[in-house]
Predict the structure of UDP-3-O-acylglucosamine N-acyltransferase.
Amino acid sequence: MPSPPDFSAAELAERFGLQLHGNGAERVVGVGTLAGAEPGQLAFLANPRYRSQLGQTRASVVVMRADDAVDHSGTALLASDPYTAFAKLAALFAQLPQREPGIHPSADIHPSTTIAADAHVGAFCSIGARSRIEAGAVIGPGCVIGEDCVVGAGSELIARVTLVTRVRLGARCLLHPGAVLGADGFGLAMDGGHWIKVPQLGGVVLGNDCEIGANTTIDRGAIEDTVLGDDVRLDNQIQVGHNARIGSHTAMAGCSAVAGSARIGNYCLIGGGVGVLGHLEICDRVVITAMSLVTSSIREPGEYSSGTPLMDNRSWRRNAARFKQLDRIARRLPAIRDE
Amino acid sequence: MPSPPDFSAAELAERFGLQLHGNGAERVVGVGTLAGAEPGQLAFLANPRYRSQLGQTRASVVVMRADDAVDHSGTALLASDPYTAFAKLAALFAQLPQREPGIHPSADIHPSTTIAADAHVGAFCSIGARSRIEAGAVIGPGCVIGEDCVVGAGSELIARVTLVTRVRLGARCLLHPGAVLGADGFGLAMDGGHWIKVPQLGGVVLGNDCEIGANTTIDRGAIEDTVLGDDVRLDNQIQVGHNARIGSHTAMAGCSAVAGSARIGNYCLIGGGVGVLGHLEICDRVVITAMSLVTSSIREPGEYSSGTPLMDNRSWRRNAARFKQLDRIARRLPAIRDE
Amino acid sequence: MPSPPDFSAAELAERFGLQLHGNGAERVVGVGTLAGAEPGQLAFLANPRYRSQLGQTRASVVVMRADDAVDHSGTALLASDPYTAFAKLAALFAQLPQREPGIHPSADIHPSTTIAADAHVGAFCSIGARSRIEAGAVIGPGCVIGEDCVVGAGSELIARVTLVTRVRLGARCLLHPGAVLGADGFGLAMDGGHWIKVPQLGGVVLGNDCEIGANTTIDRGAIEDTVLGDDVRLDNQIQVGHNARIGSHTAMAGCSAVAGSARIGNYCLIGGGVGVLGHLEICDRVVITAMSLVTSSIREPGEYSSGTPLMDNRSWRRNAARFKQLDRIARRLPAIRDE
């Protein structure tokens, strides 16, 4: 273990180009929340709704906007975006386990693989024919990597990740446990009353700096590839169907799903539990709120939603029953044209 | 294998403090459903809707309420709550595989771990630095346990469970295959057009007697911990975001999701596919029906719902189209105030 | 690796009983999309919406309907169902990895198992007492198979699949990574303020030719079995509760969920993210559109839906607020009777 981190407020201000307010000699050895921090910890104030906690905080140093610091008696680091500044500061206090270069003796590696000398391959990993593990990549314990895969430089598979076949990851990707990339897309054709499988001959391609959550699944393409751009961030338990395309810098929250051949643009924010039907296009900078279903293409940036509000069950039953009559209700009224 | 279970109705009545109706000498060697049981099997009648099956059942003994037994000619065990009584009785007939104390020779264990002498660690398990496996715990095959984790006394990880880091389980917890606890929470900050990761420095803490379903994911906290109380029961494929808190005795059905920093009270029942947005509070004894979305805090116990009823697709299309006009429809009418 | 596939259009026409249009000497060495194919590749035209791409395609041979070929100058294979024909043709170009018969030396196999001489068991697999792996079955790396399981002839577990206990697969089933079959059903009874577990004494039975997607979970039954018929096709991240029954040839899209004891008929198509409540029956040939919730039994074949359309968030908020008033709105109008 490296020696535990210990910085002065002044050192932190200088290292991250932040303005110092108060006592630069304050020591910071860890991080905490405004409400829960102890002396020696760094906290942050980004959401005004927590401003009231500032008076009581025991944090030695707080990251905040300049205007929040005006009448703050304690020590502060001033940032235009305190949350982003905190994210960078907090990284100093994340003590990540060392993954030494080398291949664990238990690993089962096909002779035709290429593994960089400084890559790490953990216990009980399987790596198949013609796959390549690039410089500094980390393959945690229990991962299965099939044929013709690439794990780009500095990418990490935490543990128990599966890359089935023809999965190519860019640099610095981070895949969490249970993620399955490159499984067969769900391609079926009916033939005389039973299903036959449509061979899934494509692969999966991720750009650089993508993050894939725990138990998320990304199927490989039927003919061409399933493609994620750069800096795509997928939370846990997301399903991405074959031949889907997700643009760079798009983030999707947990349990959302993208059906086959859908295309999502850049800088989109997809809420938790959202569904996107197949073969649709969503343009750049679209926000979809939680548990909405996207049933047609979206061509204008903006925020979109579907669903109904939560109610006590008795009221909900009454109103939901009327939903079944809604068209007849409307027809009782003078014609209403769609705007 | 132990000798197969074989009890008389009288023995079962005495062991579980139930009143015997009929022939105490009836033998019971297994369990069945009212409709499907064979002689020698124990069945139960809890739901009145199955009462009609009582006449035809071939079960040797049936657990039921006293009033259901009045004109029942067969042998019965009388319980105020037949389902709970059956749950206890059936446990006698569950022949669970033995997991002998000891560490499988293939397991990869960091020298700094502490493993109780009577714990079981199965094949192809990895256990990281400073983790502790307490008395009688069972770690099934293919589990990965990272750094600084605790598996409490008598807890069992069935197989292929991952505890990423700083995951602390109480006593008698049961984790099903594919569960991932302690993966990074989904914390991102935008910095000059690309995402940077907010370090996830907290852990996951479970109380005693929790059950976590197959492929369920519980992320670790950003600064403080993600916390489940005692006797929390999570079904399969549930997602729990970082810093969420779930109260004791709360049960959640499959595919539900709790976003970051949400707090759910004690004795709540969360239906399948339900979504709970981040930073909300749900008080004790709240029931949420299946596939509802909770978008604001709930302060009163009771049952809550959202969504619309299922209809044939043609009717649904007509009504759903009118939903887009609902505000204009309402404005045609004399003002309707929220009650 | 076998020699790469190379066929003439005439050979393909003959092998699959398709009518040849144009030059039977055209060589086909792979497949592509109409838009993306290169010379030497086979493409298909099934969806009329892509008909315009036919003029520009560089594919050497295209599978299409006879009427689409009338004024097509290139080479074509004529099929009444081009998609199904393509599925069969494309299989010729799928170069699947060889899985040699035999048991990997690292595998941990209970002495009481039965493993066919020509079956394949990969690295880091665990197989428990009394389980049977039949002729030609393939168990990929990192699978865990518990007690009393059967993997039928020619079935394949790609990698990291778990069969917990009493799981019996028919012939030619295909299970994708992360799938968990036979975990405890979610059976709980309240006893004096805390939950007790209802023992899950049943198993899981799959017919022949079933496909189970990545990270899909199918719980074992409480007393009797959870049962899937023949040719059932489940996409990724589907949850099937204990004692559910799914009829033959039914296909379910990703992230759908079937609660305990529900029965789904034959030839049903269940959309992505659909929920089916427990103890319901759905008859044969029912289609449920994406993210609908089935709250009562369905006795008539046809297409069913629930939910509301996607709107810009501002309009949605206005309309959703009115949903809370819907019953009062309706009561302002002359009585509307359900049709």
